[in-house]
Automatic annotation (TrEMBL):
Domain (Acyl-CoA oxidase/dehydrogenase middle) ranges: 134-224
Single biological process term from Gene Ontology: fatty-acyl-CoA biosynthetic process
Keywords linked to the UniProt accession: FAD, Flavoprotein, Oxidoreductase, Transit peptide
Keyword Protein transport: no
Superkingdom of origin: Bacteria
Pfam families cross-referenced by the UniProt entry: Acyl-CoA_dh_1 (PF00441), Acyl-CoA_dh_M (PF02770), Acyl-CoA_dh_N (PF02771)
InterPro entries linked to this entry: Acyl-CoA_Oxase/DH_mid-dom, Acyl-CoA_Oxase/DH_mid-dom_sf, AcylCo_DH-like_C, AcylCo_DH/oxidase_C, AcylCoA_DH/ox_N, AcylCoA_DH/ox_N_sf, AcylCoA_DH/oxidase_NM_dom_sf, Glutaryl-CoA_DH_mitochondrial
Name recorded for this polypeptide: Glutaryl-CoA dehydrogenase
Family: Belongs to the acyl-CoA dehydrogenase family.
Location of the Acyl-CoA dehydrogenase/oxidase N-terminal domain: 18-130
SUPFAM superfamilies tied to this protein: Acyl-CoA dehydrogenase C-terminal domain-like, Acyl-CoA dehydrogenase NM domain-like
Residue stretches making up the Acyl-CoA dehydrogenase/oxidase C-terminal domain: 236-383
Organism the protein comes from: Micromonospora pisi
GO molecular function, one term: fatty-acyl-CoA binding
Length: 390
């Protein structure tokens, strides 16, 4: 009997990483092992996680806005950020979502499109986790088609007055500040909205069957008056929020692999130690075929993510390439999670094992920040030159 290897050692992929990248990965993996794994099943079952406490701990190791520069951000490479997302989602998709929304949506929007005053006010404490941010784009009736958003911002003297509702907003129930996108007479614009502003209310979305270790909510804006300085000065049109989504989708390309790797790790260990018909189930051909196919898809997804990361670090990554990564890696990760559940049999539905939790979370990851169908259309447009969205 030969010595087994872990699911990502099959092709010696560590050789493709720098020493610094491996060190960053090790720090995040240790943090997840120490702080997340012992508790996450309970957080998931109760539907409550200590988000604020975790944000501060993530901030201490530089995970929040880690790929941004200045304002207390780590200025890490895209690949290092991706590896961090992979390790976080190996713990739970909801915790990777916390980091993605904080850093790649809320912080990135302010960092990329904000004024110097906005950056100085918000980014340093967002990087430490003392301030929690969220990103208000999706609405109850406008998900995949954000250009049709109903939230309005109108001028009243030098002020702006915002009215509308945002839905399915990660971090909203406990956030301190939101980046809100609204329709104006000049087109779509972004606004930095402290959530203690009069007229703002939030509501936690309950009874979720997925991402239960994440805080998700609704934001209602009822005639919210903001000074002119609340507007993101460099954000004009729909391209601005979509560029933020591209940043976050890049993290998903990597993160989904973490969930898949964790499922495969558990399934491999279970198959080696679970005996049926007088032998470990890992010794049966059908089980080995499942394990082999899943390991191959995991390697391919990792190579895709790494290629996209190297493109990003070279400043050459396109949004449609991120769509390729999100479409493939989330879809394959979900397939792996479901297949691993079959190897665990009835134990696969037990909270004692993370497999069904990962599978349930990935159902949401498959949908948010661009459904599979939307990414297929993005890729289709790139291939044909024809937009099929309408």
């Amino acid at each position: 009997m030969s010595a087994p290897v872990s699911s990502l050692d099959l092709l010696d992929l560590d050789a493709l990483l720098s020493e610094e990248e491996r060190q960053i990965r090790a720090v995040v993996r240790q943090l997840v092992d120490d702080r997340v794994r012992p508790h996450v099943a309970g957080w998931y079952e109760s539907g409550q996680a200590p988000i604020r406490e975790l944000a501060v701990e993530f901030g201490k190791v530089g995970l929040l806005g880690m790929h941004l520069t200045g304002y207390g951000c780590a200025g890490a490479s895209a690949v290092a950020y991706g590896l961090a997302c992979l390790e976080l989602e190996a713990g739970d998709s909801g915790l990777r979502s916390l980091v993605s929304v904080q850093g790649s949506l809320a912080m990135y929007a302010i960092w990329r499109y904000g004024s110097d005053e906005q950056k100085q006010r918000w980014l340093p404490t967002m990087a430490t986790g003392e301030t929690i941010g969220c990103f208000g784009l999706t609405e109850p009736d406008h998900g995949s088609d954000p250009a049709s958003m109903a939230t309005r911002a109108r001028r009243d003297g030098t002020d702006w007055v915002l009215t509308g509702t945002k839905m399915w907003i990660t971090n909203a129930p406990l956030a301190d500040v939101a980046v809100i996108w609204a329709r104006t007479d000049e087109g779509i614009r972004g606004f930095v909205v402290p959530l203690d502003t009069p007229g703002v209310s939030t509501r936690e979305i309950r009874q979720k069957m997925s991402l239960r270790a994440s805080s998700t909510g609704e934001i209602v804006l009822d005639g919210v008056r903001l000074p002119a300085t609340a507007q993101l000065p460099a954000a004009s049109g729909l391209k601005a929020p979509l560029s933020c989504l591209t940043e976050a989708r890049f993290g998903i390309v990597w993160g989904a692999l973490g969930a898949a790797r964790d499922c495969l790790r558990v399934a491999l260990d279970y198959a080696v130690h679970r005996t049926q018909f007088g032998r470990p189930i890992a010794g049966f051909q059908l089980t080995q075929a499942k394990l082999a196919d899943m390991a191959v898809e995991l390697q391919k997804g990792y190579l895709l993510a790494l290629h996209l990361g190297r493109l990003a670090d070279a400043g050459a990554l396109r949004p449609d390439q991120v769509s390729v990564g999100k479409l493939n890696n989330v879809r394959e990760a979900l397939t792996i999670a479901r297949e691993c559940r079959t190897i665990l049999g009835a134990n696969g539905i037990s909270g004692e094992y993370p497999v069904l939790r990962h599978a349930s979370n990935l159902e949401t990851v498959l949908t948010y920040e661009g459904t599979s169908e939307i990414h297929q259309l993005v890729i289709g447009q790139r291939l044909t030159g024809i937009a099929a969205f309408s």
